[in-house]
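Hello K.,

You asked for the raw outputs rather than the summary table, so here they are, unedited. I folded two proteins back to back in the same session to keep the settings identical. This is the first:
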Amino acid sequence: MKRLYLLSLFALTLTSNSFGQNKIKASQPKIATSQLDKLIGTWRLIEYSDLDSATSNWTYPYGKNPKGYFTYTKSGIVNINISTDTPLKFSEDSAKKYHINLLNWVDHFALGYFGTYTVDFNKSIVTHHVKGGSLPWYIDTDQPRQFILKGDTLIIGDSKTWKRILIKTD
């Protein structure tokens, strides 16, 4: 009886340690934890820009001072929220009267999505595995993003045609 109790206790210990663990998986084994630690955290968006191929000028769809945060957790969750620097202000009652163009809304006012992520440090690619959000065409897709980490600055994009510049907040 004592042996059965000890075996049960041992089995319970093993299973309780394995439930809820969803560790981020880097694409390459034995990636230095310090590399991943540099990405993990909350990043405040300070620039969201795209190159206009017709004029070769940088455009700022959410304004020169966009609002937003990108969060990468240790357990592999990504959460992204972006808003224009001058959001529309109207009451809930007024909002019920409006009909919006979703594409126009997410291109100029706000967007957000969440899911999990994986990282290939050798290629400097973070892939967002989107599970939900305001972009229906992103749901259940993988969104690979080139990135550069420079101290407390994260640059997402190729910097030639698009870039998102973020500053670490924690």
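The second followed immediately with the same parameters:
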Amino acid sequence: MSEPERSFTLLDGGRPVEVPARVEGGAVRLSPQAVEALGWRLEPEGLCREGLCVPVPAGAALATPDGIALEALAALLDRPLALDLEEGAAYLGASAADRAGALASLEAPDFTLPDLHGRLHSLAEHRGKKVFLVAYASW
């Protein structure tokens, strides 16, 4: 017997999206509308977003009458998935190709942090200059 739909928070590209989902035996299933809330559509060509289509291999267990398996969706997109079923939350990480491209570019991602006086500073403000950045973690 399938569980009723419940609210699930998907973090994709740094933005949270609340979607209805079913959790069955540790697997999360989304409706096609929930996948569309993430910007993807299931088309005959495959899974499409903004002109890009990822082919769905024949026999892939992506879409079933019960919905679209979130784990299969993440695997198809070559993106890591972190799930917390108790909290009803999931995080879709960046694909390996995206991470490799970012590393190959040798360009640090932009971020903004406050100084000791509360003034905000962005890394992009210092483009073209030498910057000394110290990071500390207690662990």
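The mean pLDDT is 85.

Happy to rerun anything if the numbers look odd on your end.

Regards,
P.
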